[in-house]
Design goal:
The complex is a heterotrimer. Chain A is α/β, with parallel strands linked by helices. In chain A, a hairpin with a 2-residue loop joins strand 5 and strand 6. Helices cover about 45% and strands about 15% of the residues of chain A. Chain B is mostly helical. Chain B has 2 domains: about 30 residues; about 230 residues, MetI-like fold (Orthogonal Bundle). Chain B contains 13 helices and 2 strands, in the order αββαααααααααααα. In chain B, strands 1-2 form a two-stranded antiparallel sheet. Chain B is globular, with a radius of gyration of 23 Å. By secondary structure, chain C is α+β, with helices and mostly antiparallel strands. In chain C, strand 16 and strand 17 form a beta hairpin. The longest helix of chain C has 18 residues. Classes of the chains: A alpha/beta, B mainly alpha, C alpha+beta. At the A-B interface, helix 1, helix 3, helix 4 and helix 14 of A face helix 1, helix 3, helix 11 and helix 12 of B.
């Protein structure tokens, strides 16, 4: 049998088990579906000490989060942390979340503008489904000693860097190249034809650019290794990766591209069949405290939406952030708007064709 | 009375098997099949139809990817056999006692670590700044760093490495059952080594070869990490397509259809292979 | 594929060869089919075959007889080419075989378990060797049919091996080896796997086949009866050496060594010391006090020498002691004993007699053949018998250093 269908069986079996044995997870357990670094062990320990609630952490990414919750009909976890743009589409299609009770969240802990923007982006049928936690960007991680003039995504296609470039074959790459080519894909989100036209252009460009690509990276460690070893000189990647490498090798750092870094905000959202909302709200209010938020920033490398959360952050990280993001670059960040349901299928076909192209 | 008791204990005995079959094999397949027949009409609305299957045949990308996956898997199977056969022969016929066990164990070593770690191991060896590249430069066989990763050969290396045990075990079993005097008799009657191999050893080992080949072929076809991580930028693998449909596109309908097609097409290939080699599945399973 | 040219010693077709046997040029007659000179094979410290020399005449049936572990299989495998001698030379039809692999030797072998190929039918089994030589298919078919006919199994080409009986397999194995018209056919205890009745039958069959083919057979076995019945000559092998080579009759009646005397045929064995000697004849006292008159089998034996004396069961005459007059009084050796057991086996019936000699009760047992006159049909346990045997029937050998103990004798 194939790996995938085995995985599917496991999901189905898990959902059956979960349905059949509701008493397994006790009331004082918080099952958290999140990203690496968002729930550091010491933070979890402090939370457990303070509340008596045990935290079970499951690491994942946006797509697997949605797939997992979809497979269980929104069960199996009490709190999830999808990116803000991936909530409403998934909710409309699969109904995997439940609305937040905003009265149980301490709004004073959040940077107001970020809280408002996230609430707006995660509202479906008048209900709010997400509040912000960690934010960051993706852009370019460049080895300045070897590729000094990579300033924007399209520079990755410079023949000078043949075989020395890497990016993912995922939707952020499509969006990034669209911006670099002067398009506004976000504006076209609601218009499938216009969006398809943009995608066609991007597809063309990515196929042209293919000789430059060493490999399409798929894991964070993989791209860090490629940059660290000097096998890759410039890549599209997350800001934290660039800063992490910068600490090891000053030549390598994160560069906010001219056409704008892509800004993402990971949120808190309640899975529809989560069983311990109390613990979930307690966790949210706990980790948004400035001193806890600073510890999460130290672990994840990204800043949080916690008001005053950056006060206690390591000055070196701040310095790297400021170097990568001059004020105008911050203004230029393209924040992902909610992805309408069904867009992924169009993008998928493009990504398949790029991958298959010789 | 008696009959009823027998009946109850039989039911008790059968329960785990039936549960396992139903819950973990039949039910998921039925569910997957039903899903594969759904067409997404709009947000949250679906209709029944075959379009997911049609997509596979109409879109050359999918069809070609399946072909490529199947051909590469067949090639991996052949290579595994070519490398595994002498190893199995050595273990079964030449190495005695401890050495044989040690060799057997060596085939097991890849399974002491997870597939991911195993694949990363190969990445460390094959990458441009990796061990083999450095070695080649050290030996003066290369002027600069050599990229050995991200190509089909690297996939092949990974697949063969992962599959070796599944070829060697059935081969050792069948070869051990080969009476040495058959080989000697053939040799005595004037056969060359090649003729002995072709006329005596291979026909005898056929059930082992076939069952090893089936397992290796299915494992390679169903492999996900190795082709994705070691393969080049144009390298598509059918399981990768299924993963993409399920996970990144949220298109379970298409993914299920692909899954079923993979199941059906790979079964067809195995069936064809059995027919070509004149074996029946029952023979193969019974003799190894 | 072995080119036919590499096998110069396989002339013509089988039946032609049989016809021409009598016309073999005189100069070739003196060349033995097999000659071994000082052949030695050492495994580590162990001398499995130790300086063995012998020749096998064309067309003869030659057996190598010995207990398991005596080195006979090693010797056969050296002749077949599966093993190289550590030293010494093997020549087949006068041609030195050193360095010639088994597939280039003019030798065929019938294996202990026959080694018929289960993946092929009978025809393909028998034709296997011919196919390796690249013989045209039509000729293969003809020669296979011919060979199967000669072993009495015509027309079974399409049968599968597992459909054959034990005896049929035996004959197919011989046909498979013989179709190649080897100079030498080696047989490695091929009857071992058969049941007794079939084995008896196949002994005769094999001998007939050998005579029919006229090919030289070299047969190894641990079964003396197989060797005696079939062979023109038998070599008795022990501890890697040949103890004696000769006609079966020679081995039986004139064993050259204590080992041969004990191994070939049944014998009562006495271990003792020479008391007096008059040239060939000796008087010995056994360890359990029996006085035995015997003749030295080979060299003269000085008084005081430890000897082993062998007496065949059929050389012992017996009479009922109660009959009064001692019918056995004329013989050089006699003894009185009690019937311990009657081992009735038709013509081979024996009686175990426990001797009461030198005042000892419960002394040693003797194995005596019962005369087939019916006179002793009512012989029963506990009866007293008087036994006698001639001095000539008791052959004395210098005792072996590692010889078996008294009780294990016979």
């Amino acid at each position: 049998m194939t790996r995938i269908s085995r995985r599917l069986f496991a999901c189905l079996a898990a959902s059956l088990m979960a349905g059949a044995l509701p008493s397994l997870a006790s009331a004082d357990t918080l099952r958290l579906l999140t990203w690496g670094g968002y729930a550091p062990e010491d933070v979890v320990a402090d939370f457990e000490k303070e509340t008596g609630i045990t935290v079970e952490v499951t690491l994942s990414n946006n797509e697997e989060m949605i797939a997992k919750l979809r497979a269980t009909g929104g069960g199996g976890f009490d709190l999830a942390q999808p990116s803000q743009d991936r909530i409403t589409g998934a909710q409309a299609e699969f109904g995997i979340y439940k609305p937040l009770d905003l009265s149980r969240i301490d709004a004073s802990l959040f940077i107001p503008s970020m809280l408002e923007a996230t609430k707006k982006n995660t509202t479906l049928n008048g209900e709010v489904y997400g509040v912000p936690h960690v934010w960051g960007t993706s852009g370019l991680v460049v080895n300045k000693a070897k590729a000094p003039d990579v300033k924007d995504y399209l520079d990755l296609c410079d023949p000078k860097y043949k075989g020395r470039v890497s990016y993912r074959l995922k939707r952020p790459t499509l969006i990034a190249f669209a911006f670099a080519m002067g398009e506004d894909p976000f504006a076209a989100y609601g218009d499938p034809d216009a969006y398809q036209a943009i995608l066609d252009k991007v597809e063309q460009k990515l196929i042209e650019c293919k000789p430059n690509v060493k490999t399409y990276w798929s894991g964070g460690d993989e791209i860090l290794n490629l940059l660290r070893s000097g096998e890759v000189w410039a890549a599209m990647a997350w800001d934290t990766g660039g800063w992490k490498l910068n600490a090891e090798n000053p030549d390598i750092t994160f560069v906010a591209p001219k056409s704008g870094a892509l800004g993402w905000i990971d949120t808190f959202a309640l899975p529809k069949r989560g069983r311990n909302d109390d613990a979930a709200y307690k966790w949210i209010n706990f980790v948004m405290r400035p001193e806890i938020a600073a510890r999460i920033t130290a672990a994840a490398g990204n800043f949080t939406a916690s008001k005053g959360g950056d006060a206690n952050v390591d000055p070196a990280l701040k310095a790297r952030f400021n170097e990568s993001f001059p004020p105008e670059a911050i203004d230029n960040i393209r924040w992902y708007p909610p992805v309408p349901a069904g867009l992924e299928a169009m993008e998928g076909a493009v990504l398949d064709r790029v991958k298959a192209a010789e | 009375m008696r009959r009823r008791e027998v009946g109850i204990s039989l039911y008790l005995l059968m329960t785990p098997l039936v549960l396992w079959l139903t819950l973990l094999i039949i039910l998921p397949h039925v569910a997957m099949f039903v899903v594969s027949l759904r067409e997404r009409v709009g947000v949250g609305t679906y209709a029944f139809g075959l379009s997911n299957y049609l997509t596979f045949f109409q879109e050359p990308l999918y069809w070609n990817t399946f072909l490529r996956t199947a051909i590469m898997s067949v090639l991996a199977t052949v290579l595994t056999f070519l490398i595994g056969f002498p190893v199995a022969w050595y273990i079964a016929k030449i190495a005695r006692g401890r050495l044989g066990q040690a060799l057997f164990l060596a085939c097991l070593i890849p399974f002491w670590v997870s597939e991911l770690v195993r694949t990363y191991g190969w990445m460390i060896l094959l990458r441009e700044s990796g061990v083999f590249s450095s070695l080649l430069q050290f030996l003066g066989l290369a002027d600069g760093p050599v990229e050995l990763l991200y190509n089909d050969a690297a996939i092949m290396v990974g697949l063969v490495y992962t599959s070796m045990l599944f070829m060697v075990v059935p081969l050792v079993t069948t070869l051990e059952s080969l009476d040495d005097s058959l080989v000697e008799a053939a040799y005595d009657m004037g056969a060359s080594s090649w003729a002995v191999l072709r006329e005596i050893i291979l026909p005898h080992a056929k059930p082992g070869i076939v069952s090893g080949a089936i397992v290796v072929f299915m494992l390679s076809l169903g492999n996900y990490l190795t082709p994705i991580l070691l393969g080049g930028k144009s390298s598509l693998w059918f399981t990768g397509l299924i993963y993409d449909q399920f996970i990144t596109r949220f298109n379970w309908e298409q993914g299920s259809a692909f899954g079923f097609l993979l199941l059906a097409l790979s079964s067809a290939i195995v069936w064809a292979g059995l027919r070509l080699s004149g074996q029946s599945l029952r023979d193969t399973m019974a003799r190894t | 594929m072995t080119p036919a040219g590499a096998l110069p010693l396989r002339p013509g077709h089988m039946s032609e060869r049989l016809v021409s046997r009598e016309e073999v040029p005189v100069s070739n007659v003196s060349v033995p089919d097999l000659e071994c000179r000082e052949v030695t094979r050492i495994f580590g410290e162990f001398r499995a075959v130790d300086g063995v020399s012998f020749t096998v005449e064309p067309g003869s049936f030659f057996s190598i007889l010995g207990p398991s572990g005596c080195g006979k299989t090693t010797l056969l495998r050296m002749i077949a080419g599966f093993l190289e001698p550590t030293s010494g030379k093997i020549a087949i039809k006068g041609r030195d075989m050193t360095g010639v692999p088994p597939n280039r030797r003019p030798v065929s072998m019938v294996f202990q378990h026959l080694a018929l190929f289960p993946m092929m039918d009978v025809g393909r089994n028998v034709g296997f060797g011919l196919r390796q030589q690249g013989v045209p298919r039509a000729e293969i078919d003809r020669r296979v049919a011919d060979a199967l006919a000669r072993v009495g199994l015509p027309g079974i080409e399409r049968r599968r091996i597992e459909e054959l009986s034990g005896g049929q397999r035996q004959r197919v194995a011989i046909a498979r080896a013989m179709v190649l018209e080897p100079d030498l056919l080696l047989l490695d205890e091929p009857l071992g796997a058969l049941d007794l009745k079939l084995r008896e039958h196949m002994k005769v069959e094999l001998k007939k086949l050998q005579e029919g083919f006229g090919t030289t057979f070299v047969y190894i076995t641990h079964d003396q009866s197989e060797a005696m019945v079939m062979s023109d000559k038998v070599a008795v092998m022990n501890n890697g050496r040949f103890e004696q080579v000769g006609r079966p009759q020679d081995l039986y009646y004139r064993p050259a060594t204590a080992f041969v005397a004990g191994f070939v045929g049944d014998a009562n064995r006495f271990v003792g010391k020479v008391v007096t000697t008059d040239g060939k004849g000796i008087v010995a006292r056994t360890d359990d006090g029996l006085e035995v008159r015997a003749v030295a089998a080979a060299d003269a034996l000085a008084p005081g020498t430890r000897v082993e004396i062998f007496v065949r069961p059929e050389a012992v005459r017996m009479a009922r002691a109660a009959a009064g007059s001692d019918a056995t009084a004329a013989e050089a050796n006699h003894a009185i004993g009690t019937v311990q057991d009657v081992l009735f086996n038709g013509a081979n019936s024996r009686v175990l007699v426990r001797l009461e000699q030198a005042g000892q009760r419960g002394g040693r047992e003797m194995d005596v053949a019962i005369p087939q006159t019916g006179e002793y049909a009512d012989l029963s346990r506990g009866e007293r018998l008087s036994l006698a045997w001639a001095a000539e029937a008791a052959r004395a050998y210098p005792a072996r250093a590692d010889g078996p103990s008294e009780e294990a004798g016979a």
